[in-house]
């Protein structure tokens, strides 16, 4: 579960999830972060730990990750959020993954490829992306497929748009790779099931849900009991899958 703070960890567990994203920046208090990780572990939740550095800087991400390395709750290092969209080249992300694999063996790495990389972007909108990256339709999944141990795939459109995007761009590029589906819960239970069914066609090895966020995203799962009920049912069904 993305953007789930400690105040909702118990609910996340109740809904049948086993992991939460835990983000820390360079100003985060290490002792406070340890308490957050302790709380997650106490509830039986694993942490996908996100050393959040903006703009991406390999050395700074490494230093922030190693500040928290060794905590038993940390199951994955979340290297970068949508590096293709934010100007972090695949070789930079891969170099960070290799470095952490040497210094913290046994903790796999994770990154997310954005669906927004398709098509030409106006420079006035995205000045932080090198101009050579503007026209990269269909290339990002192939470019980043080996940038981390696990590749996350998100798309927050309608079920039909999700289906078209996955079948055209994602499944061919990530075939044979370990990847996770990132599924928005900001939709009706019926559309949630339809979107998830399409993701499952590609046989992801995990699913991340987007349910709690900063105020700008405008959705809080605590306010939607109908989605909570659907999510409990869906997660129970997923755990029964062979």
Give a concise summary:
This protein is an alpha/beta fold and 242 residues long. It has 9 helices and 7 strands, in the order H-E-H-E-H-E-H-H-E-H-E-H-E-H-E-H. Helix 3 runs parallel beside helix 5 and helix 7 packs parallel to helix 8.
CATH topology: TIM Barrel
Q: Quick one: CATH class?
A: Alpha Beta
Poorly predicted runs are none
Spell the H/E element sequence.
HEHEHEHHEHEHEHEH
Q: How many structural domains can be distinguished in the coordinates? A: 1
End-to-end separation in angstroms reads: 22 Å
Which term fits the overall shape? globular
In the sheet with the most strands, the strands line up as 1-2-3-4-5-6-7
Which terms would index this structure?
242 residues; alpha/beta; TIM Barrel; seven-stranded parallel sheet; 9 helices; 40% helix; globular
